[in-house]
Amino acid sequence: MRASWRGLLRALTVASVVFMVAPAPRVGAAEPTPLLAYGARIAGDDARTRLVIEFDSEPDFSIHYVANPPRVIVDLPETSFGLKPESLEPRGLFGAIRYGGMGAGASRLVLSAKGPTEVTHAEVKPTEDGKGFRLVLDAERIDQARFDKLLSEQQWTGTARATKTDRPAIAPPKTAGAFVIAVDAGHGGIDTGAIGGVTKTEEKHVTLAFAKDLVETLNRQPGIEAFLTRDRDEFLSLPQRVQIARQRSANLFISVHADTLKQKDIRGATVYTISDRASDHLAADLAARENLSDEIAGMPLESEPAEVADILIDLTRRETQAFSVNLARSVVSSFEGQIGLINNPHRHAGFRVLQAPDVPSVLLELGFLSNKEDEKQLLDPEWRKKVSGLLATAVERYRQTAVANGG
User: Fold this and answer.
1) In this structure, how many other beta carbons lie within 10 angstroms of the beta carbon of residue 189?
2) pLDDT tens-place string over residues 23-50
3) What is the pLDDT of residues 141-198, one digit of tens each?
4) Which DSSP string do the residues of 83-109 spell out, in sequence order?
5) Whole-angstrom Cα distance, residue 376 to residue 371?
6) What domains sit in the chain, N to C, each tagged with a CATH number?
7) Residues 272, 345: Cα–Cα separation, whole Å
8) What start and end residues bound the annotated signal peptide (predicted)?
9) b or e along 231-262 (b: 16 or more beta carbons within 10 Å of the residue's beta carbon)?
10) Is the model's pLDDT at 314 over the cut of 90?
């Protein structure tokens, strides 16, 4: 009966969940060339602020608004941002400015406002030298009633418009009976994640490099089929990551991260499982930051898909959590004496990316980019390969036990 709860739940729910996956590209369709944003400036005060971005070709754009906190969202076609960081230092009405890819040929600018704000004027015009185009946005402080009206009148679901659709359709396992593992490289696209204290390396690149090594290592083991939730620098929402794993009938979900802490002397790997109550303040704070990923990208908080049969869900979730804990213990056992671990290396908190009720899941913090020794290791290909091998050993040990117990 152990495997039947999860199998029945998956059969009842996965096919019925609406998930935005771009179709395969049309044969012969020309791929659009990404825009280049090569210059920017911002000026203003707490009443009015002007933002100017220069592009190599004319940008198509749309503007939307998100509440809690108030944000102005500027959606663009796929854009390479060749901007100096200081050119868009937040000022005036905006307390934070982020930009980057959103996947599927789309990019986004997220302007986090200090209060209710409206873009009162937006236009694109040629630059004086005729070699590019300038997007000009004028924003003003407004009252809450006006902002609420903007929110209620806009026709927008929170997704970015796609101009290129090259994400492949969800595929079944290549081998019947394979033990399928989803390896999730944390962050991506507009969501850079943590920043290295010495090298300023972005977490999204660290996690993807390790995830690729891990998938390669796992796929060398007979009977295992591992895949990446993202294989490039693109944004995926937290629910999307979970649903990709479920639609591929994953037996395991491993989300990879490398965070930062204010305490720069703390270092070592940590394995997290999901729980309604955090094991400690460090776990609670980390989960809170990781759960902000969608907000950082300007996504409204998605409600979780409606599930069927509450009793079935509860039974499945309990069983899945037990398997997740067993996986975490196997990982810690494999790492001990081989790589550095934080004190109490198995911790738990309410991570949204670990919420699949029918897929045992762990979040692996490889180390801390805020610690210079950890940062050096995280950027070392040989260290990554060593850790990938140890993790593969832990997964194989877990798989043998799970199969023996009907997992």
Assistant:
1) 22
2) 333 334 456 688 999 999 999 999 999 9
3) 999 999 999 999 998 777 766 444 455 555 666 677 899 999 999 999 999 999 998 8
4) --GGGG---TTEEEEEEEEEETTEEEE
5) 9
6) 2-20+168-404 (3.40.630.40), 35-153 (2.60.40.3500)
7) 8
8) 1-29
9) eebbbbbbbbbbbbbbbbbbbbbbbbbbbbbe
10) no
